[in-house]
Amino acid sequence: MHGLRSVSMTAQYQRIVLASRPRGKVSSDNFRIETVDRPVSLEPGSVLVQNHYLSLDPYMRGRMSAAKSYAQPQALDQTMVGETAGVVVESRFAGLSPGDHVVGRLGWAEMGVAGGESLRKVDAQKIPLSAYLGMVGMPGVTAWYGVNIILNARAGQTLVVSAASGAVGSVVGQLAKLKGCRVVGIAGGAQKCQYVTGHLGFDACIDYKQEFSDAELLASLSAAAPDGIDLLFENVGSTIFDTSLACLNPHARIALCGMVAAYGGSAAPLNNAGKLLTMRATLQGFIITEHMELWPRALDELAGLVTDNKLRCNETIAYGLAAAPGAFAGLLLGKNLGKQLIQLI
Amino acid sequence: MHGLRSVSMTAQYQRIVLASRPRGKVSSDNFRIETVDRPVSLEPGSVLVQNHYLSLDPYMRGRMSAAKSYAQPQALDQTMVGETAGVVVESRFAGLSPGDHVVGRLGWAEMGVAGGESLRKVDAQKIPLSAYLGMVGMPGVTAWYGVNIILNARAGQTLVVSAASGAVGSVVGQLAKLKGCRVVGIAGGAQKCQYVTGHLGFDACIDYKQEFSDAELLASLSAAAPDGIDLLFENVGSTIFDTSLACLNPHARIALCGMVAAYGGSAAPLNNAGKLLTMRATLQGFIITEHMELWPRALDELAGLVTDNKLRCNETIAYGLAAAPGAFAGLLLGKNLGKQLIQLI
User: Residue A110 sits in a domain of what CATH number?
Assistant: First the structure.
């Protein structure tokens, strides 16, 4: 509660706005840190929250572009979007009181005001507050939806997931293992692969950075999934997606969750799209915020698995708001291991 | 019945076998015509059929390759696969008698023996026999399945179909028009486009041969589908598919039925696969013979529409078995208008 009290006495706080849209790679120059006044009074129904953690997620890169996508682009000169976990400082919303732990979408800022309906009160005794931004938050629900609703994973099937050590991929693979699948991850670097097989319990992990050609990547994937791919949870796109397509089994199912490789504008074209026909595949692109009706069920199940220690995820934490731009650029380059967070307090 | 009697007296008939697998384009050299003996006696349950029509369909190109696909490759030196419509000559199957009209899969041959269970008795009084190979046969059911089951077409939606003047595409567009969709076809050549809009009643048709660049094709498609594409029935693949992907609306649905452009081994890679994610598209590759349980319902509906003159399709007919290789090569080059058939009698 130290942070709560100190900020209650502060008249100003810091936030980060989008200063310019990146061309290619994101750099710190695309952001600007600003000091703004704390609101003097709250509207009825509103809540003032002190953020303890900011979530950094690959989808934010898409929002930084002006291109039409599934959401409005992030506006210039406005607080960067993003999920946050924090503590209620003041409340004019009946359901929340000072001291309550809440998850919301207050963006890259030390504090913020939100309508009480947009905040989710969470129990930070049972589960660490930060986990509500990862395994028991949007990344976890994304994984849950893909594995259960789109892929309908069943025992004996082979599931491949790219960005396997990330916040979504790590949950995808663990959920599939719990269902009895053979799970193969794809990740970049020996440390990540060690984490994926050693810590998360996947059956195999391919280090795509060790594969010097598309043919070698295909050979490694074929060896790790000797019976072919029944289920594909795709986070990356580009050559990695294309290679997985080459290994599809008949009636394969594909959850298309991310195309992070395209965010820099350099996605390789797909050569193996014909496999979608010849293997009679079903592919579904999705964005988890369009399926809010399933969040309560998903969050319940995920919270239960975390409490039972059946679901785990490493966190890569950078400290202080000013670290966010650099940590975000690092996330897009895959420098994080597990969930990337900014801890503010 | 003239044909029936004459062949009953013939001790031999002709068939076409696959002589070699094509590399790239199909040529007549890939086939060999043979004269074989008519069976002297029938096994119990078997039926001898004189074929009146052979169906030529793009999927046969896929079978000619040795590559793994949704079906076993066509065996060398064996009768080319294919749907046929004809008349029973002799029968040792309780449900069929000489003179019955039947549809089956006897392949590229003047006659053939099949198990009675594999033959479908049809009414050639109500509907012309040849239509059972098109609108009221596999192409029609393929269209019906895509429009009704995969795309779930509804009034007010915009549907785009490639190979629009073909046996499948022409039915796709007409079914969607009956449901109240705006229907845009893509076809090659002014004559086909005139047929698609004038005869079949599509709202618009894009002549891809008139578009000299990918950007021009995109501009034409965007103009013909000003509200974007809700439903895509893809028969062609390659650049045409890629261009349609660029115009997808949110929650677009895609029935992936054919990639005929890939059969020659020269499919362009897909650059717009990212749209599958950003538009949260659902794509399903399918092969209609895996959904036999729906054929009776589909055929009933299609027969009703043909009888009511609500469904029409041109036929391009070549005469005599020896014409099949050339007509098939022409089909792959898009030389047919509507359903391509070989008439034997």
Answer: 3.90.180.10
CA distance B31 to B19: 5
User: B257 and chain A: CB distance < 8 Å anywhere?
Assistant: yes
Complex-level ipTM beyond the 0.95 threshold:
no
Residue type, A88: V
CA distance B230 to chain A (A): 14
Query: Does residue B302 belong to any structural domain of this protein?
Result: no
Q: Considering only the beta carbons, identify the residue of B69, B269, B280 that sits closest to A269.
A: B269
What is the Cα Rg of chain B in Å? 20
Cβ separation of A273 and B284 shorter than 8 Å?
A: no
**CATH classification at residue B182:** 3.40.50.720
B76 and B164 co-located in one domain: no
**DSSP state string for A40-73:** SSPPTTEEEEEEEEEE--THHHHHHS-S--SSPP
Give the whole-angstrom CA distance, residue B235 versus residue B263: 12
B10 and B111 both lie in a single domain: yes
Q: Distance between CA atoms of B110 and A139, rounded to whole angstroms? A: 61
How far is B330 from B134, CA to CA, in rounded Å?
Answer: 18
Mean pLDDT of all residues in chain A? 93
Contact A284 B282 (CB under 8 A): yes
The amino acid sitting at B289 is T
Cβ atoms of B249 and B281 closer than 8 Å:
no
**Residue B54 domain-assigned (yes or no):** yes
- DSSP-derived letter for residue B295 is H
Contact check, Cβ <8 Å, A277/B256: yes
Number of helical H runs and strand E runs in chain A: 10, 15
The alpha-helical segments, DSSP class H, found in B153-237 are: 167-178, 190-194, 214-224
pTM: 0.90
Kindly report the backbone phi and psi dihedral angles of residue A121, in degrees, each rounded to the nearest multiple of 5, phi listed first: -75, 135
The answer to whether residues A127 and A306 touch, using CB atoms and an 8 Å cutoff, is: yes
| A237 in contact with B, Cβ within 8 Å | yes
DSSP state letter for B323: G
Shared domain for B191 and B246, answered yes or no, is yes
**Residue B26 shares a structural domain with residue B149:** no
Reduced 3-state DSSP string for A99-119: CCEEEECCCCECEEEEEHHHC
- Chain A residues touching residue B68 (CB < 8 angstroms): 278
Q: Are residues B227 and B324 located together in one domain of the fold?
A: no
Report the 10 Å Cβ neighbour count for A271: 17
Cβ neighbour number for residue B70 with a 10 Å cutoff: 18
Block means of pLDDT (10 residues each) for chain B, 345 residues, are 45 96 91 94 96 95 80 92 97 97 97 96 95 97 98 98 96 98 96 97 96 91 97 93 96 92 67 93 96 96 97 96 96 93 97
CA distance B246 to chain A (A): 11
Asked if residue B156 and residue B49 are part of one domain, the reply reads: no
Measured CA to CA, the distance from residue A120 to residue A262 in angstroms comes to 32
Minimal CA–CA distance to A63: which of A75, A51, A54? A75
